[in-house]
Write a structure and sequence with these properties.
Elements: H1 2-7, H2 15-27, E1 35-37, E2 42-48, E3 67-74, E4 77-79, E5 92-98, H3 102-109
Amino acid sequence: MNLYDGLGIPAVCDVTWSVHRIHQLLLHRDLTPDVRFGDGETLLVRSALPPYLTGRHITEFEVEGEIRVVEVTRGGRSLLPLHGTLATPDDIVTFAVAATSLRRLRGFLDKELGT
């Protein structure tokens, strides 16, 4: 299974895994890493920001040593966020995240879903 994931090939193993994956896709934000560094300890993931984060400082989304915002795509243009950059509707944010903190990031982004 890990070999397929590493190559970006979707694979279905068994019923339990399939049900769990479908549940994730329906109820949780998909945070599939775009890039993995080292042995997968650090990930680069992109996600559209949920509306409840509009108007907040981008730096509020960071957790020292775990989650860092490295880029924002706004209106089709990329920018490196400054300390005072505010989130706007339809922002797509690139996070550098420790693999062990991916669940924490997902929970933060899914907060409005109540999951």
